[in-house]
Amino acid sequence: MIASVAAIAATLFLVLAAPSLLIRLQADHITATGQNARVALEDGTVIELGGDSAIKTEMTTGGRHVTLLSGEAFFDVAHNPARPFTVEAGGVKVLVVGTAFDVRLAGEETTVELERGVVQVSVGESRKTPDFRLLPGEMAVVNRSDGAVTRNTIEPDQVAAWRSGRIFVKDASIGAVAEQLQRYHSAWIAVPDRKLAGLKVTGLYDLHDPDSALKALVEPYGGRVRTFLTYGRLLTHY
């Protein structure tokens, strides 16, 4: 019996740890839960990584390429038309010359928010969604499972608000926001109710107090945050 429990525990550990281990092996820069970091590239570009995030960089004489492996990053790109700058996140590509923008991976969604400049977003060759451009104060959420794009507006000073200890979301699902908060919370967060996870919210949430942020996230819909085993948070509809 004890051996069986140990085997199950070991299997669960491998299932949960394998993706994280693979990301660590690929990443050039990585942050821990709740940790932000600033990365300066050789061309003068500055990247700010959010909590529990990872990137891989490739710099050549003809171009600059960054892959967002997990989490979120804000890019302040040095202007250089001779070396286009590309960010790839879950198959979604953002092409720029010199600009400032944020890219986030959460669940099946890739979100791009533009602070200044112009970016071109490509959903992928396998999708019928045409490439499109974003202007300052615009954002787009790409559903990577079907290629659907939802475009919206955002105040430029709210782009990458996590850099000042907050996250701003607009028409985002509770599940996606919970995943963002997970990167700043030591506890494991789960939303087992798919209906609750799919409800949309707009708001500003405090990363310095993620438990209060979780309550603010679900209470308007009658939801509750249940604590279990100290290091677990369940968001429920009752």
UniProtKB/TrEMBL annotation:
Superkingdom of this protein's organism: Bacteria
Domain FecR protein, chain residue ranges per copy: 29-120
Alphabetized InterPro entries for the sequence: FecR, Ferrdict_sens_TM
Pfam family membership, one: FecR
Molecular function in Gene Ontology: sigma factor antagonist activity
The species this protein was found in: Ensifer oleiphilus
Protein name: FecR domain-containing protein
Matches recorded under PANTHER family: PERIPLASMIC SIGNAL SENSOR AND SIGMA FACTOR ACTIVATOR FECR-RELATED (PTHR30273), PROTEIN FECR (PTHR30273:SF2)
